[in-house]
Every structure is written in structure tokens, then in C-alpha cells.
């Protein structure tokens, strides 16, 4: 049935194992982020067989449904309303707020568990985390964890590239190491993990310039799609087609390239101008922006051009080709946002092949 996402089991497993081997060669821990495919059960079976060490998601609902012996990490800061679920369904969570850490301490006591805390440090991307220069705030959070019998301070971590577009480099990695060293010296402890790596760090991993002290990373886009969006580069040693999106043609017509009549906003209130390219051979595909934003799709057939979309239809130009007929299937490679949206849509079928 279409539209659908097909996951190629062999290619995806090869991608996971390749990234895991690169990290393990430097004694680093690979944490596979599963939010990109909503922790789909069939894809999770591939991960369970792989050499990845931890599993992570920003959604506690993903972690709650996992049947795994691997460590589960919540990488979005815990909401106070979900503290019970966080302790129940993850072994470790990223945290930056003392109030939330105290709530986790109380709940871990109720559940008779020890919950691991990775202190989130903002190294300049300006999303989550205690700003790295605010050492007093870092000390306060660390002290709460270390004084608790139901919490364990497992390390510090940072996220780069997702909001401010900050590139992972030697300077911000050394800054994260310095924060960890400060905590260790201040409290006479040893932190097991410094988590600074993500897909945005793949170039440093490839070149073996990632400091040895940075020994933990959370990876998604690299092994899922063989791409690094922060550096905008294809990772040539990984498959970029482990996931493919397929949609069926439901209409083929020759029509003008510009709408006819008085023009207002479209269904989304947008005012779009279309170039006059004369009569076009256009096809309709049976998916729309309710399923995925077409800007994040890449047609395998380079002769196909995506013109636009409404909530339920996507319009493509066939550039006069007689190759396609109604009922034929058009295939796309995916960018990370497309994978996220497609696995979230309940109208898109998911298969492992």
C-alpha cells in the first residue's frame, strides 16, 4: 500500500555497524537516537541486533515501548509532568534544572531505583543546558545529584548544531572537557561520560581529532540517512538510501504552469507565484503536507521536479515524459525532517525489506 516508507534492513544494519566500529575503535560509546523513526518496532529489531550501546529519544513515549537490555537515554530535558514516566522508562536523562532534578530524586526513591543524570551544558548553540560559563549553577546542580542516594551523576553532555547551527570543533569540545574536569576537581569524583558527539561531529571522528575524553555520542542522521545536515555533506562511506519513500501517481494531465483567475492565498494562507513555463505535463501523488514537507524529499528520478503541495496532494512535473502512467510509483530519498514527519504520520505505511 502507498504512500509508504521502506527501510532496507541490510543497508541500515551496515550503517549502524560502520558508525559503531568507528566509535569503538576510540573506546567511545555509541548511543543510537530512535526518534527519527518513532522507535518503530520493526526498525528497533535491527538496532537490537547491532553493535550500538545505548538507545535515545527526545520522547519518553518512544523509550517506554522499547523491549531492550540497552541503556535508554532521554535526550530532551524532562517535563515536570512526566517525571514518573522518565524514571520508569529511562535509565538516564539529560537535565539542567535543579527543580526537575529534585523531582527525579523524589520519584526515583518512590520507585526504589537509581536514575542516572547527564548534566546538559550549553556550549554556545543556545538551546538546552546550563551555560558553560555559569560554574556556580553547574556546581549547584551537580551537588544535588551527588548528594542523592537515588541519583547518579554519569557525566556532562552538550548539543550542537540543532538550533544555533554551531559546528562541533576542538574549542567547544575542550570547553565541555573543562566543565567535566571542574566538576571532578570540585567534588572529588570521576565522571564516566562526556557526551559531546553527534552526526555534526562525524568529520572529527573520521579524522580522529575528537579528544579521547569525549567518549559518548548520540547519533541519528548519520546512520539513518548517511548525511550530515550541519556540514551539508553526504557521508560517502554510509548508505543514503536505507530509507526510501514511495508514492503512487493518481492523475496525469497537461495543464498550464500558472493558475488562472484572481489569485489569493492558498489553503495555508500563502501567496505563491508560479513561473509561466507554458503547458506542463503534471502528475498528482497521493500524499501532502499533512504527511511530509516536500522540500525534504529528493526524487530518485532527476527528471522529476516537485512543483508544490496541498495537505493531501503533491504535484510534480514530468517534463513531458511518456514513461509514467497512472498507478506508477515515484520514489524519493529522504532528508532527516522528512523521515521524522513520515514516521509520525499514521497515513503512511512502514515496511522493512
Structure description:
This protein has helices at residues 9-24, 41-48, 60-64, 83-89, 98-110, 135-147, 170-187, 202-206, 221-225, 336-344; strands at 4-7, 29-33, 54-57, 71-74, 92-95, 115-122, 130-131, 151-157, 193-197, 216-219, 227-228, 233-234, 243-256, 279-285, 297-299, 305-309, 314-317, 329-334, 349-352. It has 353 residues and is of the alpha/beta class. It folds into 2 domains: 9-232, TIM Barrel (Alpha-Beta Barrel); 243-352, Elongation Factor Tu (Ef-tu), domain 3, CATH 2.40.30. The strands form 3 sheets. Strands 1, 13, 14, 15, 16, 17, 18 and 19 form an 8-stranded mixed sheet that branches. An 8-stranded parallel barrel has the order 2-3-4-5-6-8-9-10, surrounded by 5 helices. A hairpin with a 4-residue loop joins β11 and β12. The model has no long low-confidence stretch (mean pLDDT 94).
Question: Could you provide a short overview of the structure?
Answer:
With 353 residues, this protein is α/β, with parallel strands linked by helices. The chain has helices at residues 9-24, 41-48, 60-64, 83-89, 98-110, 135-147, 170-187, 202-206, 221-225, 336-344, and strands at 4-7, 29-33, 54-57, 71-74, 92-95, 115-122, 130-131, 151-157, 193-197, 216-219, 227-228, 233-234, 243-256, 279-285, 297-299, 305-309, 314-317, 329-334, 349-352.
Key features of this structure:
2 domains, 353 residues, TIM Barrel, 10 helices, elongated
How many separate helices? 10
Level-2 CATH architecture of the largest domain: Alpha-Beta Barrel
Order of SSEs:
EHEHEHEHEHEEHEHEHEHEEEEEEEEHE
Main beta sheet strand tally, sense and closure? 8 strands, mixed
Terminal Cα span: 14 Å
| Name given to the CATH homologous superfamily of the largest domain | Alanine racemase
Beta-strand content estimate:
25-35%
What is the CATH topology assignment of the largest domain?
A: TIM Barrel
The outline comes out as elongated
Give the domain tally. 2
Average the pLDDT over all residues and give the rounded result. Answer: 94
Protein structure class: alpha/beta
Assembly annotation: single chain
- Which runs of at least 5 residues are low in confidence (pLDDT < 50)? none
